[in-house]
């Protein structure tokens, strides 16, 4: 059902014909905002959800202008226009699609200060809210970047497309000149391609007499153009290109550029300052963005949010970013949180931080979204402190050849209380590495220590929490090959918030409840389906079917076909994992991975079936739900199971989870739970659902559990165990035992970069009848751990993580 306050305005025949239009803005803000009539859940107003018929409906650009908030929706690939809209939101939280909408896949935005116009994609908006649009017939392509003109900035701008098209547009007449052809079609006579490396263009900006363009796919590129020729700056994937002037462009006294990118090692932050490029490296908070095609990296931004301050996000981490950031002035960069959502753009509007996102897409054949849709998020900068605690990983070198006395790029380590460096190389002689740090961000480096790594060896170093360092770097004593310098950084996880999840049934207690299957309906229904299993005090289940619309009324309905389809095609079948005496086993292709166990209640199915294991709940982001723990699971193009990270561990009876109208929906609510800010009860009182936001999961409970690769398992000497997850758990305890009559030596190996390369952490010799315990040093972390033995034996190796470890580790004296 279409929600009444959000109106769709049909295209006009003139727009379809590709003309230019000028018309009044469709909505005027009321003098006194009346927003309390709309329900807000975890920052989401469900009535503001936007829907599309294509494979994607992201919110591509946000801009406060003329007293209102303007934003674009975008599909996956519409370079010639389409049904997506230019939207305007008034202070009463009423959104209207502009009749000037020409559609298309656009995310560019800028403010042209001389003509007093806001420019979003192909739309030019004056200070009275009058909109003019350039049709896709005149300017085809997916517009992703806008920038000031090099020669005539008062009258012209540049607009760039995802397929390397570049246009010059007169801001007054809207005359369009093609400079480089958009490669959605082959160039014709007189048209020229840019022929840049990479694909999937993103950012665009001008500074210091050059135009800078970023490609974030197929290897990527950061390139600059002087008005005649292109120059490759970095051959890596880059996204955002901006500067201290933000959407208006830089003032002469602050004419610098910042560019965000990444490679297989880490996030890259490049700065154009004084005519030279400088490079720093930052951790990745997530591997889900890593696919080479670049589709999963949408859209990193650096946006002003307060005087002197910007908000930056990239690869799963948000930062407070100082507008003063320059080549010799890098202080003030502060990690704020990690996250699961896909932020696309954000700004301050009416005293709130507003974030546009790409919430749920059917692209790629995803059957779980029902219909592509997204929603705005409203909150404060302080709310980000409730999302995931800052944590990440990354390298300055990853199996690289390094030169003697040449420093690595600086790597950011500030704002993380736990920091470990893993260092190894493949040379046939020992190598010493000088570890240096910059405490103040002014480029003055101090030596911390010297680390000598033997031939073909590995060593690690936990950095003291007392070390005041913004950046660290390494300097090798000699040329060496196969060098890896990899960091794991983290903080204590967010504390559990029982009140936030009050009402979810306890998995370990037999109690009346409702659970079942949830999914947005297909077509343009915009409703949520709930095939419920209602378990009463007698323990017997009954079935019921419900639907919920944008007013959040959960109604029992009779729709036999819809209910049957939901229970069969989308039912809770056998789990996509196995549980044995040792731990949880997940198999991906020919690869085996092991994860911790939690409660015995998760060893068996619920009345409604096995809890949902894998589901996409954010566009191009999957959750893995196994044995009471939620994990972020990258798609295979980004590394798949080998690159998961834990989010939260719980003891809740959660049967299913879904994304709908920007919300996270959880099924599994205890009977009798009253309606509340997060609980919606059905009209017949028999069923209920929990509603929140996907990044609420960080407060469900810190990751914890126990298990390992072996439990009274017969093993062969030298044969490695299955990998067992280590990332994201603190503290960590290993318990070893065996049934042999002679001592057994266990070798513990770690995979620090989630790439199936292994390094020896330690060896432990365990006597017969001995139970050996090892507490990993605080701050030490790798992605996976495995073990070998020096003899055939029946052995056990159990890891205790989080709360499970705290109960076993003796208190420090």
Description:
- Among the domains are: about 100 residues, Jelly Rolls; about 190 residues, no CATH class; about 100 residues, Jelly Rolls.
- Helix content is about 0%, strand content about 45%.
- It contains 3 helices and 62 strands.
- A hairpin with a 4-residue loop joins strand 17 and strand 18.
- The N terminus is likely disordered.
Task: Please give the radius of gyration in angstroms.
Answer: 27 Å
Flag low-confidence runs. Answer: 1-31
Distance between the termini: 63 Å
In terms of DSSP E residues, the strand content is 35-45%
Helix vs. strand class: mainly beta
**Helical percentage:** under 10%
Q: Strands of the biggest beta sheet: in what spatial order? A: 1-10-9-8-7
Mean pLDDT: 94
Number of strands: 62
Largest sheet descriptor: 5 strands, antiparallel
Query: Could you say which overall geometry the principal axes of the C-alpha atoms support?
Result: globular
Number of helices: 3
């Amino acid at each position: 059902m279409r929600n009444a306050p959000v109106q769709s305005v049909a295209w006009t025949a003139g727009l379809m014909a590709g003309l230019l239009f000028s018309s009044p803005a469709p909505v005027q803000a009321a003098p006194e905002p009346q927003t309390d009539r709309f329900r807000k859940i975890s920052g989401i107003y469900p009535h503001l959800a936007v829907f599309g018929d294509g494979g994607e409906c992201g919110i591509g650009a946000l801009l406060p202008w003329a007293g209102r908030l303007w934003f674009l929706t975008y599909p996956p690939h519409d370079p010639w226009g389409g049904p997506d809209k230019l939207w305007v939101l008034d202070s009463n939280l009423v959104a209207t699609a502009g009749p000037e909408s020409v559609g298309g896949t656009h995310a560019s935005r800028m403010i042209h200060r001389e003509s007093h116009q806001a420019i979003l994609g192909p739309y030019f908006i004056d200070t009275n809210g009058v909109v003019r649009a350039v049709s896709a017939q005149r300017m085809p392509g997916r517009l992703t970047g806008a920038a000031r003109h090099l020669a005539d900035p008062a009258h012209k701008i540049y607009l760039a497309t995802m397929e390397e098209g570049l246009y010059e547009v007169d801001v007054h007449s809207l005359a369009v000149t093609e400079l480089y052809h958009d490669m959605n079609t082959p160039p014709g006579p007189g048209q020229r391609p840019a022929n840049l490396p990479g694909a999937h263009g993103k950012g665009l900006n001008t500074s210091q007499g050059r135009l800078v363009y970023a490609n974030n796919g197929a290897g990527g590129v950061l390139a600059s153009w002087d008005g005649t020729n292109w120059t490759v700056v970095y051959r890596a994937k880059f996204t955002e290109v901006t500067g201290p002037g933000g959407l208006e462009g830089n003032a002469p006294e602050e004419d610098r550029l910042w560019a965000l990118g990444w490679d297989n090692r880490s996030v890259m932050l490049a700065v154009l300052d004084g005519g030279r490029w400088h490079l720093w490296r930052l951790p990745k908070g997530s591997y889900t963005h890593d696919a080479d095609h670049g589709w999963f990296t949408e859209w990193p931004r650096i946006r002003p949010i307060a005087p002197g301050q910007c908000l930056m996000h990239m690869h799963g981490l948000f930062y407070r970013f100082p507008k003063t950031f320059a080549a010799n002035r890098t202080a003030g960069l502060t990690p704020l949180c990690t996250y699961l959502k896909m932020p696309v753009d954000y700004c301050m509007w009416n005293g709130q931080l507003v974030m546009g996102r790409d919430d749920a897409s059917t692209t790629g054949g995803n059957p779980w979204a029902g219909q592509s849709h997204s929603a705005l998020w409203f909150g404060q900068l302080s709310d980000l402190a409730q999302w995931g605690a800052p944590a990440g990983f990354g390298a300055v070198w990853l199996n690289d050849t390094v030169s003697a006395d040449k420093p690595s790029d600086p790597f950011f380590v500030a704002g993380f209380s736990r920091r470990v460096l893993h260092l190894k190389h493949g040379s046939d002689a020992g190598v010493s590495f000088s570890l240096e740090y910059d405490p103040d961000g002014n480029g003055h480096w101090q030596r911390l220590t010297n680390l000598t790594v033997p031939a073909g060896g590995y060593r690690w170093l936990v950095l003291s929490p007392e070390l005041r360092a913004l950046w660290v770097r390494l300097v090798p004593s000699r040329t060496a090959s196969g060098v890896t310098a990899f960091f794991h950084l983290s903080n204590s996880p967010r504390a559990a918030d029982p009140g936030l999840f009050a009402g979810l049934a306890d998995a370990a207690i037999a109690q009346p409840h409702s659970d079942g299957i949830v999914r947005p309906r297909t077509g343009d229904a915009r409703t949520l389906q709930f095939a419920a299993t209602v378990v009463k005090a007698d323990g017997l289940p009954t079935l019921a079917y419900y639907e919920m619309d944008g007013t959040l009324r959960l109604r029992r309905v009779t729709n036999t076909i819809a209910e049957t389809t939901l229970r069969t095609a989308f039912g809770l079948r056998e789990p996509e994992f196995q549980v044995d005496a040792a731990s949880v086993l997940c198999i991906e292709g020919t690869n085996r991975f092991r994860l911790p166990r939690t409660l015995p209640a998760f060893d068996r199915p619920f009345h409604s079936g096995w809890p949902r294991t894998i589901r996409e709940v954010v566009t191009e982001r999957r959750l893995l739900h196994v044995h009471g723990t939620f994990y972020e699971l990258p798609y295979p193009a980004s590394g798949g199971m080998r690159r998961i990270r834990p989010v939260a561990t719980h003891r809740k009876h959660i049967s299913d989870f879904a994304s709908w109208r920007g919300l996270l929906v959880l099924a599994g609510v205890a009977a009798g739970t009253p309606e509340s800010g997060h609980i919606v009860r059905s009209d017949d009182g028999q069923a209920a659902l929990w509603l929140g936001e996907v990044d609420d999961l960080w407060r469900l409970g810190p990751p914890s559990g126990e298990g390992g690769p072996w439990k009274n398992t017969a093993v062969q000497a030298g044969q490695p165990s299955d990998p067992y997850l280590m990332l994201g758990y603190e503290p960590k305890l290993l318990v070893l035992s065996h049934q042999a009559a002679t001592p057994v030596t266990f070798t513990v190996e770690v995979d620090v970069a989630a790439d199936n390369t292994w390094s020896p952490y330690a060896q432990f010799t365990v006597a017969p009848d001995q139970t050996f315990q090892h507490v990993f040093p605080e701050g030490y972390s790798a992605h996976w751990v495995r073990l070998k033995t020096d003899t055939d034996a029946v052995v056990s190796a159990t890891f205790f993580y989080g709360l499970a470890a705290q109960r076993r580790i003796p208190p420090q004296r």
